[in-house]
Automatic annotation (TrEMBL):
A GO biological process held by the record: aspartate biosynthetic process
Organism: Bemisia tabaci (Sweetpotato whitefly)
Subunit and interaction comment: Homodimer.
EC number(s) on file: 2.6.1.1, 2.6.1.3
The name this protein goes by in its record: Aspartate aminotransferase, cytoplasmic
Protein origin, superkingdom: Eukaryota
Pfam families according to UniProt: Aminotran_1_2 (PF00155)
Cofactors required: pyridoxal 5'-phosphate
Main location: cytoplasm
Keyword vocabulary terms for this entry: Aminotransferase, Cytoplasm, Pyridoxal phosphate, Transferase
High-level lineage: Eukaryota, Metazoa, Ecdysozoa, Arthropoda, Hexapoda
Entry-linked InterPro entries: Aminotransferase_I/II_large, Asp_trans, PyrdxlP-dep_Trfase, PyrdxlP-dep_Trfase_major, PyrdxlP-dep_Trfase_small
Catalytic activity: L-aspartate + 2-oxoglutarate = oxaloacetate + L-glutamate; L-cysteine + 2-oxoglutarate = 2-oxo-3-sulfanylpropanoate + L-glutamate; 3-sulfino-L-alanine + 2-oxoglutarate = 3-sulfinopyruvate + L-glutamate; (2S)-2-aminobutanoate + 2-oxoglutarate = 2-oxobutanoate + L-glutamate
Length: 401
């Protein structure tokens, strides 16, 4: 019966990653997958995470019972407070809540299904470009149609605000707009607060529904509040919204699938119905989420000392990335690589949208075994002082040849 199945297209990042892993070349550099690497190019288990895991393992009370369908309440309460801020009016007015999900992807998946099934959402809008999974997740949720809104201006190497505002202003009322709350993936270009004000104004006028995607809170600037300012501004403006939170990057818990889906409503009396419907969605999808990762995050967020230590870890990661950005730009300028490289340091977060063409990216791979996405996106967190010279000279060679 399976002979009718045709192969689907490969998922670029994972297919390319396999190619890189299989490449025997000693000096190869993997700038594909968005995961933090140490100076030794190794994955990093945050010391505070390791410590908390040991503490939990040694606690006689730790067990492997099922979590409730909507996950751990101490976790989702702490995660929601981290997003909205301790002084959040929405929290004080008890009109915001979170549910634990399978990392950021799971939060997007549950949230988008909820919007289709219970709010009758039909259209979704994603930035051009965006994280390549947004479209797939929202299509699977049952949206009738997805549209791109302009975001990246290649000439300016920045945000195409005019195009963005024009595209949003043409969206049908009740369309769902996916917004990256910080560290836009793949461009690394975030709107300024003034630009968020403009985006919010158009969305309010056109009655568009914001679905924020917060995959990098704290990881982008090193400051949890700074990285949540767009979401908080929208709430201050009276928007009802959803926000998908991932703890993959900021806790280094990629495989543990720790996420939270925050709902903000203006009418707290709607919450029991919403919760009951989300419960049914999750029950039919995966029944209940895993507990290991969320208990680590919950323990750290709810303990002032561990929280402090975690903030130090976030800073270590974001500072090292900033240093690598500066180092890469400095080398490209020194090598007199044609073009401007200002954007390497003005972009924020894990990725740099280098502006390299698909042909240059291909050249980087075949000639120098430096692997990047076709779009020219590179993972800055995989650049180290040890491979910086090699990466810079390879990029230089790809640009001049
Ligand atoms: N949104 C964006 C923009 C991302 O970059 C990512 C991670 N690559 C995610 C969501 C979700 O990742 P995860 O499911 O691993 O939390």
């Amino acid at each position: 019966v399976f002979s009718v199945v045709q192969p689907g297209p490969p998922i670029e990042a994972f297919a390319l990653n396999k190619e890189c892993v299989d490449d025997p070349f000693e000096k190869k550099v993997n700038l594909i997958i968005g995961a933090y690497r140490t100076e030794e190019s190794q994955p990093w288990v945050l010391p505070v995470v390791r410590k908390t895991e040991i503490m939990l393992a040694n606690n006689e009370k730790t067990n492997h019972e099922y979590l409730p369908i909507l996950g751990s309440a101490p976790f989702s309460t702490a995660a929601t407070a981290m997003l909205l801020g301790k002084d959040s009016k929405a929290l004080k007015e008890k009109r915001a809540f979170g549910v634990q999900t399978l990392s950021g992807t799971g939060a997007l998946s549950v949230g988008s299904r909820f919007l289709v099934q219970h709010l009758g959402a039909k259209h979704f809008y994603y930035s051009d470009p965006t994280w390549e999974n947004h479209r797939l997740v929202f299509q699977h949720a049952g949206f009738e149609k997805g549209f791109a809104y302009r975001y990246w201006h290649a000439g300016k190497r920045g945000i195409d605000m005019e195009g963005l505002l024009e595209d949003l202003s043409k969206a049908e009322p009740n369309s769902v707009i996916i917004l990256h709350s910080c560290a836009h993936n793949p461009t690394g270009c975030d709107p300024t607060l003034e630009q968020w004000v403009q985006i919010a104004a158009v969305m309010k006028e056109k009655k568009l529904f914001p679905f924020f995607d917060s995959a990098y809170q704290g990881f982008a600037s090193g400051d949890l509040d700074e990285d949540a300012k767009a979401v908080r501004y929208f709430i201050d403006q009276g928007f009802e919204l959803l926000c998908a939170q991932s703890f993959a990057k900021n806790f280094g818990l990629y495989s543990q699938r720790v996420g939270n889906l925050t709902f903000v409503t203006n009418d707290p009396s709607t919450i029991p119905s919403v919760l009951s419907q989300v419960t049914i969605i999750v029950r039919g999808l995966y029944s209940n989420p895993p507990s290991h990762g969320s208990s680590i995050v919950s323990t750290v967020l709810n303990d002032p000392e561990l929280f402090q230590e975690w903030q130090g870890c976030i800073k270590t990661m974001s500072d090292r990335i900033k240093k690598m950005r500066a180092g890469l730009k400095e080398r490209l300028v020194k090598l007199q690589t044609p073009g401007s490289w200002e954007h390497i340091t003005s972009q924020i977060g894990m990725f740099s949208y280098t502006g390299l063409t698909p042909a240059q990216v291909q050249y980087l791979k075949t000639k120098h075994h430096v692997y990047a996405l076709k779009s020219g996106r590179i993972n800055m967190a995989a650049v180290t002082t040890k491979n910086l010279d090699y990466v810079a000279s390879s990029i230089h060679d790809a640009v001049v040849n």
